[in-house]
Amino acid sequence: MNFCSHCGSARMEFRVPEGDNRPRYVCPDCDTIHYTNPKIVTGCLPVWENKVLLAQRAISPRLGYWNVPSGYMENGETVEQGAAREVWEETLARVRHLTLHAVFSIPHINQVYIHFLAELDTPDFGVGEESLAVRLFSEEEVPWGEIAFTSSVFTLKHFFSDRRQGRREVHMGVMERS
Amino acid sequence: MNFCSHCGSARMEFRVPEGDNRPRYVCPDCDTIHYTNPKIVTGCLPVWENKVLLAQRAISPRLGYWNVPSGYMENGETVEQGAAREVWEETLARVRHLTLHAVFSIPHINQVYIHFLAELDTPDFGVGEESLAVRLFSEEEVPWGEIAFTSSVFTLKHFFSDRRQGRREVHMGVMERS
Question: How far does the CA of residue A25 sit from the closest CA of chain B (Å)?
């Protein structure tokens, strides 16, 4: 943050405001405190019979890697609406009746992944603009070495493990800086 | 957003960037797109025997109203760490072994509440800087007309209902614009 987005000042300071306990961008000219907070990445693993729907990323980061359809939650939507939107944008599949599956924090990059599950009504899908390919995978077919993000590995492992044991749980996870 | 926080330009535009599908603040001088996304409010309902610990707010909004200890999640922490921090800051109670209880979206103000439950090891607590008072309440004692936020009513109602029925669930909720 080089300039105050409120008054245009070039004298931005990064310091602990009075009464606070952590540094923020503070404008000494208009006194605005600019807070930054973690972002939510919302997504959903579509399920069809014994298979799951993954999208191969057409964009950076991790271009060419496979992912649970997900992306940044937008203003003006619920977490579930955001997840269904991401599934539609990436895989052209429609999901309904989403159930919460995983909440995964990545503190060093200020992200929280919220992943749902949803059974597809029909195996209709296609290749969205941000995808190179979209495919159903059984557990044996999942390309474990080519999964885009740790959050997706977490969600997939727990999904298959829960399914083998006939249970449904919400899984809390965290990725530490490696 | 009156000025570009990157280059200081005063010519900010609010428009749909190429390849996007919703309006963003875009700087025509340095081409930076300034995204804004929902914020997470993380919190935890501390439980002691048949009572829950609420904090009376010493700050706006809803000054003087009672609340499940919660606040904006900060960069660099997990959702659980943020919830435990908020409990400490508001009630001087230490919570461990948090279990997820509720995820509550408020789309028109771009917030997602994530509330946990935690049994207190001991009934030790005090009045944090942002609180006027802190108290344990049984279900009958909860001041339902003086609860600060809908998200807290949601969390409290489900907590007592689950407890009566001897179950533990994660509850998904949404507050529509009234």
Answer: 11
Mark whether B18 and B75 lie in a shared domain. Answer: no
For A92-122, the pLDDT digits (tens) are 999 999 999 999 999 999 999 999 999 999 9
Residues of A in contact with B100 (CB under 8 A): 103, 170, 172
- SS3 labels along B40-84: EEEEEEEEECCEEEEEEECCCCCCCCEECCEEECCCCCCHHHHHH
Does the distance separating the beta carbons of B72 and A22 come in below 8 Å?
no
**Residue B111's domain spans which residues?**
39-174
- Domain check: are B10 and B92 in the same one? no
Chain A, 128 to 167: residues with Cβ < 8 Å from chain B are: none
**Can you give the pTM of this predicted structure?**
0.96
Residues A12 and A85 in one domain: no
In whole angstroms, give the CA distance from residue B122 to residue B20.
52
Tell me, what's the ipTM?
0.96
